[in-house]
Amino acid sequence: AVQLTQSPSSMSASLGDRVTITCRASQGIGSALAWYQQKAGTPPKLLIYDAFTLESGVPARFSGSGSGPDFTLTINSLQPEDFATYYCQHFYTYPHTFGGGTKVEIK
Amino acid sequence: QGRLVQSESEVKKPGASVRVSCKASDYDFTDYGITWVRQAPGQGLEWMGWISTFNGKQKSAQNIMGRVTLTTDTNTNTAYMELRSLTSDDTAVYYCARGGSYPDDALDVWGQGAMVLVSS
């Protein structure tokens, strides 16, 4: 099964900062990767799919890049509502595993 | 756009079974698969399985294979996840989500989650 390793597992950042989160796949997965944002007590929200395509309604400060095995989620100019936990997920083969998550906290 | 509404939270004893429902609305149910994901308290997301709402084909995670059954009812646009032989390790919030099969792999609509507490 494909394993996804996210880094860092947590980070502190300030409003306006540029934040970069990495997701490394244990094997090539093409561009079959999505990113989600989750806030406490709520289900995840899709941000990016197919590695770099922005989901409708998601602010343009979010962007995805990369191709197997390394992928990146970038948040430009961090806003108050962006403090959350972020997960990557692959769709290359079943099981469609998730990364371990990256918690972005206020510095 | 689509909406998924799940059943209420449940408390179960070890060894029991639980069935979580997921009712879809505002989209054509058979156009998308349904994926099940769980999240233990304070932990990350765990992919459990996927089912095709078109033909019932399904995949499940190795660690729960044999204990989990995924089904759908196209008459009521509802998906079900049954998990048997529960242990405390199964205590989690269980989510259903739309997607998980090509070309709609990403999970773009999620249910609100159903907490399952396994406790004696």
Q: Which terms summarize this structure?
A:
heterodimer, A: 107 residues, mainly beta, 10 strands, B: 120 residues, seven-stranded mixed beta sheet, four-stranded antiparallel beta sheet, 0% helix, globular
**Mean pLDDT reading of chain A:** 96
Q: Determine the number of helices of chain B (DSSP H or I, runs of at least 4 residues).
A: 0
Principal-axes shape call of chain B: globular
| Main pleated sheet of chain A | 6 strands, mixed
Strand tally of chain B: 11
Q: Strand arrangement, largest sheet of chain A?
A: 2-10-9-4-5-6
**Principal-axis shape of chain A:** globular
Helix share of residues of chain A?
under 10%
Strand content of chain B: over 45%
Question: What structural category arises from helix and sheet content of chain B?
Answer: mainly beta
Q: Biggest interface and its residues per chain?
A: A-B, 23 and 22 residues
The low-confidence runs of chain B, each spanning 5 or more residues with pLDDT under 50, are none
Write the layout of secondary structure elements.
The complex is a heterodimer of chains A (107) and B (120).
Chain A (H helix, E strand, L loop, with lengths): L3 E4 L2 E4 L5 E7 L7 E6 L6 E5 L3 E2 L7 E6 L2 E6 L9 E6 L11 E5 L1
Parallel strand pairs in A: 2-10
Antiparallel strand pairs in A: 1-3, 3-8, 4-5, 4-9, 5-6, 7-8, 9-10
Chain B lengths: L2 E4 L3 E3 L5 E8 L8 E6 L6 E6 L6 E3 L7 E6 L4 E6 L8 E7 L10 E2 L3 E5 L2
Describe the protein in words.
The complex is a heterodimer of chains A (107) and B (120). With 107 residues, chain A is an all-beta fold. Chain A has strands at residues 4-7, 10-13, 19-25, 33-38, 45-49, 53-54, 62-67, 70-75, 85-90, 102-106. In chain A, the strands form 2 sheets. Chain A has a 6-stranded mixed beta sheet, with no helix packed on it. A 4-stranded antiparallel beta sheet of chain A has the order 1-3-8-7, with no helix packed on it. Chain A starts with a strand and ends with a strand. The model of chain A has no long low-confidence stretch (mean pLDDT 96). Chain B is mainly β and 120 residues long. In chain B, 0% of the residues lie in helices and 47% in strands. Chain B has strands at 3-6, 10-12, 18-25, 34-39, 46-51, 58-60, 68-73, 78-83, 92-98, 109-110, 114-118. Chain B is globular, with a radius of gyration of 13 Å. The termini of chain B are far apart. The chains are: A mainly beta (107), B mainly beta (120). At the A-B interface, strand 4 and strand 5 of A face strand 5 of B.
